[in-house]
Amino acid sequence: MQVAILAGGSGSRLSEETVTKPKPMVEIGGRPMLWHIMKYYSHWGHNDFVVALGYKGEYIKRYFVEYSSLSPDLTISFTDGMVQRHENGSSMEDWTVRLVDTGIYSQTGGRIKRLASHLGNETFMLTWGDGVSTVDLDALVEFHRSHGKLATLTAVRPPARFGHLELDGDRITDFSEKPQLGEGWINGAFFVLEPGVFDYIDGDQTHFEREPLERLAADGQLMAFRHYDFWQCMDTLREKMLLDQLWESGEAPWKVWA
User: Cβ distance 187 to 118 under 8 Å?
Assistant: First the structure.
């Protein structure tokens, strides 16, 4: 199944990091967030990616051109500039990556609609280029196929931003640092979609999270796959630091690959 990833955002709340690069290329543990997302999908057998580019899209193009050439063993001919890769048994990602310019100022819906010709007339997966999770992708796809609707989004409980207190008068009876909220669900992305969703998107300035999802819900075509485990976006430097700490600790929940 093809995986569409929106990677065109500027990441204004990460401005210290995104002056020279798009948000999905901000690094966690020395690797771009986009790489982490693709490695996660690849672990579940999804290796065909269509990446929607926008802000500083040339940065992402250069990264993948260079990444694909970094085989462990190379022969370089300085006379004619030829570079030959040698297979030596080491594993390289079995990825096909299409990098599609979807406009500097396009909104999320516009970017998705511009990918329509690349995704064909088949069910596809979609996510944003700024978040990781431990969502069971096999179960997600199975759930989508079971209900027969046009769209499935992964519903998550967001991590609390501050420590949670239980009070008895002025006495704190329970303190929990950054727990998952006990109630309330938000859009965690990690969608599975049918081509019919393109009909719900008007054009470049359409925000997918607004009119298209609102209309899909009103038409009874939007279903929620509840995910109770780890999910974390990277909207702020604080969240980037949290993800870095998880990676450096060796306990990053989304690192399921060997």
Answer: no
The tally of CA atoms less than 13 A away on the side-chain side of residue 230 is 13
Check pLDDT > 80 for residue 20: yes
Q: Is this model's pTM higher than 0.90 or not? A: no
pLDDT digits over 204-235, tens only?
999 999 999 999 999 999 999 999 999 999 98
Residue 27 backbone phi and psi in degrees, to 5: -90, 140
Question: How far is it, in rounded angstroms, from Cα 41 to Cα 61?
Answer: 20
CA atoms of 207 and 200, how far apart (whole Å): 11
Round to the nearest angstrom and report the end-to-end CA distance of the chain: 22
Sketch out the chain's domains with CATH numbers. Answer: 3-158+185-248 (3.90.550.10)
Q: How far apart are CA 56 and CA 186, in angstroms?
A: 29
